[in-house]
Specification:
It is a single chain. The protein is α/β, with parallel strands linked by helices. It has 2 domains: 145 residues, Aspartate Aminotransferase, domain 1, CATH 3.90.1150.10; 273 residues, Type I PLP-dependent aspartate aminotransferase-like (Major domain) (Aspartate Aminotransferase, domain 2, 3-Layer(aba) Sandwich). 42% of the residues lie in helices and 16% in strands. The chain contains 18 helices and 15 strands. The strands form 3 sheets. A 7-stranded mixed sheet has the order 4-10-9-8-7-5-6, sandwiched between helices. A 4-stranded mixed sheet has the order 1-2-3-13. The longest helix has 20 residues. Bound molecules: 4'-deoxy-4'-aminopyridoxal-5'-phosphate (PMP). The site of 4'-deoxy-4'-aminopyridoxal-5'-phosphate (PMP) has 15 residues, from helix 6. 4'-deoxy-4'-aminopyridoxal-5'-phosphate (PMP) binds next to helix 6. This is Adenosylmethionine-8-amino-7-oxononanoate aminotransferase. Belongs to the class-III pyridoxal-phosphate-dependent aminotransferase family. InterPro entries: Aminotrans_3 (IPR005814), Aminotrans_3_PPA_site (IPR049704), PyrdxlP-dep_Trfase (IPR015424), PyrdxlP-dep_Trfase_major (IPR015421), PyrdxlP-dep_Trfase_small (IPR015422).
Length: 462
Amino acid sequence: MQSPAHPHLDALVSLDREHLIHPVAPWRKHEQRGVTVLESGRGAWLTDASGHQLLDVFAGLWCVNVGYGQESVVQAAAEQMRKLPYATGYFHFGSEPAIRLAAKLVEITPASLTRVYLTLGGSEAIDAAIRLITQFYNNTGRPAKKHFISLERGYHGSSSTGSGLTALPAFHRGFDMPLPTQHYIASPYSYRTGLDDAAQIAASVAALRAKVAQLGAENVAAFFCEPIQGSGGVIVPPKGWLKAMSVAARELDILFVVDEVITGFGRTGPMFACDAEGVQPDLMTLAKGLTSGYAPMGAMLMSEAVYAGIADGAPTGAAIGHGATYSAHPVSAAVALEVLRLYEQGGLLANGHRVAPHFAAVLDGLRDHPLVGDSRHRGLLGALELVSDKASKRGFDAALGLSDRIFDAGYRNGLVFRSFGDHILGFAPALCFTEDEFAIMGTRLKKTLDEILAAPDVRAAM
Ligand code: PMP
């Protein structure tokens, strides 16, 4: 069913081309291609401005975990806007939703985390973690601990320092990144390393130990990781990997920072990926599913020890100069509280558990497709990795432009997902998906892959 096209679509496309800079886009290529204006959403479905209906298997940008059109969230935002649209956290002011949200986050995250700083999104949460870890070591008499370690293919936002913990070329090229204090260890990319689960975990632990030894533990501040690497290509480490890395970090006397911006809020099954392995991080970053994209917000949580080190090590009465006008925004906090209620009392977490096997079946069902080298998933987060040769796991030449072609073919077939590099398709459906919607996803995805496979230049490359 098609809706009528937007009456001013051509004008919008021209204005976009002339004025709006898009995040993480090839700017000139975007101008040539033109914007796709998204118009409305309901549940797992989007409608664009030309009336095309799309099944969104990426929850916006892995964030709209409750799905589109949740009226109770809209009401929570409207009520808070009417009552008090803004309250600063400066000068010892605050608002009820922000205070209740902080308490709720402490209640549902691992027990090690007791203090919450509310931001505008994930990048700012990572940035806060880096700045406050720096303050922590300075205030506790270990000022040499300034080096940070993260994973190759990791993504930790695009702030001016966090982009150096991100280990993807586009975030470094031309930005003079990474900083000399930022270092990487190999990603637990079992499909490519060929290691079995135990060997993969042992390899990652050994790599962290070796990197800390090389830098000197007295110089290393923290290890940052995603429990499942998202933007690096949905790399799912073996079960037990996160726990092993947390134990190693503790033994090495470095802070263990878990970036659950994507994996939080039911994305991988439990409320947080840490829960599945009983991991107790020193710091945790959150965003995306926190508000399900209905309002911008992220969070950075820390342990009591880190909090006390910062608070008690600062000169008495001196301000700790980290904050922003919109920190702990009351409307975003009210939205987050209602979104969290939907996960728990609204049954969305339970629905996510119920439908996850159908998601897994769609991806695993395509394993035998000639283009598919690997399918991997946990909960409602997954990927298909395409190869031109299954035995050698060889990818495709970038000149084929497969990434754009697959995305475009999916779009024509009424499917929104994400393509990484030239050969990885990422999926993160909302927790409200139904069994029938996964059946539609399966049909449309297979049709998309079949169309790509039928192209003569793709066949020639295989
Ligand atoms: N960390 C991770 C793991 C992410 O996936 C992202 C966003 N994709 C961020 C941090 C940054 O969050 P934001 O885009 O909200 O700044």
